[in-house]
Recover the amino acids of this structure.
């Protein structure tokens, strides 16, 4: 009996979700990207730029955000060149009032350029997890966010934490 009720509830939610789920806002963010672990031994702090599309349902504290990001880092130890990481992620958000949690999975591409030696590229899956704080202002919704990103597989040494400031409109 309980399974039938749960199945009926799940079916109802799945049927209603597409009608209530809608794009609520776009987001633009930028800030500081800090390399961590062994990646931080080779790279300096750099920049982050992000654009996103935010989805949610009225009266529910959960939502989703699709994002594209670029992060750039210069090499340490007088080594010329840089590392650029592009990512496309799908994230879940959970609102806790003004603060929120965010995390998700995505596709990452890291390109390392070393002076005249050329460049190497690593691509693959990755994940991110973090938290943010939204400030309720009338016209725009500014926010600050901290997230940990890590590529997986052969590029699991690519780990960084952007601290971004953004707006949702």
């Amino acid at each position: 009996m309980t399974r039938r009720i749960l199945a009926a509830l799940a079916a109802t939610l799945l049927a209603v979700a597409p009608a209530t789920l809608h794009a609520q806002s776009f987001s633009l963010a930028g800030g500081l990207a800090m390399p961590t672990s062994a990646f931080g031994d080779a790279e300096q702090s750099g920049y982050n730029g992000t654009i996103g599309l935010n989805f949610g349902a009225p009266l529910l504290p959960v939502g989703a955000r699709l994002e594209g990001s670029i992060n750039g880092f210069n090499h340490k130890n007088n080594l010329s060149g840089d590392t650029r990481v592009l990512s496309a992620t799908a994230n879940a958000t959970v609102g806790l009032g003004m603060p929120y949690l965010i995390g998700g999975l995505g596709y990452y591409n890291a390109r390392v350029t070393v002076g005249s030696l050329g460049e190497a590229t690593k691509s693959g899956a990755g994940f991110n997890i973090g938290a943010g704080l939204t400030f309720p202002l009338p016209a725009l919704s500014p926010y600050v966010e901290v997230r940990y990103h890590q590529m997986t597989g052969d590029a699991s040494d690519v780990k960084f934490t952007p601290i971004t400031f953004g707006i949702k409109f």
Q: What stands out?
A: The two ends are 45 Å apart (CA to CA). The domain at 21-168 is CATH 2.40.160.20 (Porin).
